[in-house]
Design a protein that fits this description.
mainly beta; 1 helix; Porin; globular
Amino acid sequence: MKKTIYLLVLLGLNSLGMAQVSIGVDVFNRYVWRGTDFGNSATVQPSIEYAMGGFTVGAWSAWSPSGAAGGNENDLYLGTSLGPVDLTLTDYFFPEYQGTDSLFNMDKHIFELSAGFEMSGLSSVVAMNLSGDDDNSIYLELTYGMLTLGAGNGAYTMKDDPDFNIVNIGITASRDIYSASFIINPEQETSFLVFGFSL
């Protein structure tokens, strides 16, 4: 399966000459994803994406300016749409640049398939880890306007709980290039106020 994934990515990259290219960078005071803080640090998040023929191929990453452990992430993804549903296959990798840590060490990667749907201002995401996670953890999220509610099991919980727990309650506001989110993770009994800007 992993060979198939990389073949799809390479096929996408082979067509870059005809693709629409977009780049961006976000800067936030914290990297909080699906209710969990990564790196306990500010974060710089660059991205590059190629879109062509109904497919997108991209790379997204998060880097801690302080070099904090757990704050670095480098992802590859392939996306397409089937009718009203957006499908994305993501390869998550958390480089530490120490010892045997390597892009080519597949034990360090988590592959996730997610499906997103939006209608009348309500959007939903269902995501499942296909490999690299013994629990094959699942994350569910609903967003309506400024409000977000997310639940997960396995890796999204403190004790790899097989039962679903609410891990992400958030409210987000934005103005121009700036955004702020107040996020509560009831399962971890933590909260965050995240502020940042996008270029």
